[in-house]
Amino acid sequence: MTAAAMTMNAFEDDEGMQDSRLGRFSLGLAAVLTIVASGWAIFQITGERSVSQLQIEGRMQRLSVGDVEQVVRPLLGGTQFADVDLGAVHDAVVALSWVARASVERSWPSTVRIRLWERQPVAHWNQDQLLDERGEIFAPEQRELPPDLPRLSGPEGAAQTVEQTFARLEAPLASTPFALAGLAQDPRGDWTATTVDGIELRFGRRDPGEGVAVLKGPALRALGERLGQVRYIDLRYTNGFSVGWREPPTTRKGS
Asked: With contact defined as beta carbons under 8 Å apart, do 56 and 116 qualify?
């Protein structure tokens, strides 16, 4: 009897513990459901609002807040906050020529936040385009083209190669009379650079870097003070170089 009673009591105690756990689980589930229901209610209330604020962040030198607002506002006007197409807003922002990348998000209860990164131009590319610091080509308005950048050109798909080659040449020649203003690669692969003083450097299809030692050594020693008369230096030779001279200015009779 005593053993049976102990067993029954133990079972009853076990059952009580299960009831207690079940009760706690039910309360916990109810709490979770209450939280979820409350969250949905908040979404329903705030989601039906229109966008009341557009927040634009980023360091802008060539863009203005007005430029961004102009392309974004038509996508927000009359639209409920929860229905704003963030993808369309993002696409409209990155379509601006000076925008490198952007992020767009909702900020409750009724703000759309845009953060953008402006392109940093490093060179002119071909006639009317620019290259940014990531080697990407973009085309701003003509009046927005900075005048003091190197001028690079080349065939389609060669932008990064030309930019990297220019960077390899620029540093070793910067402190010489052959400081570079531009570099071009034609469709056949021939390289031609232009110095700040207007001298044309013809490298041919060989690696232009191979001509640096000739320019800083034999060419500089041989030409010396006559560099102002030089029109081009042809570096396509295995040993040595040739020079083309500027034509002397014509003098009018009787002057």
From this structure: yes
For residue 223, give Cα distances in angstroms to 147, 171, 201, 232. Answer: 30, 21, 14, 12
* Maximum CA extent, the chain: 145
pLDDT tens for 43-66 read 444 546 788 899 999 999 999 999
Q: Which residue ranges make up each domain of the chain?
A: 53-118, 122-245
* Superfamily for domain range 122-245: Cell division protein FtsQ/DivIB (3.40.50.11690)
**Token digits of residue 14:** 């076990």
CATH 2.60.120.10 assigned to domain 53-118? The reply is no
Which tokens in the block code for residue 56?
Answer: 């634009």
Measured distance CA(20)–CA(29) in Å, rounded: 14
CB 112 within 8 A of CB 55: yes
Question: Rounded to an integer, what distance in angstroms lies between the CA atom of residue 164 and that of residue 244?
Answer: 28
The structure's pTM equals 0.74
| CA–CA gap between residue 146 and residue 120 (Å, rounded) | 11
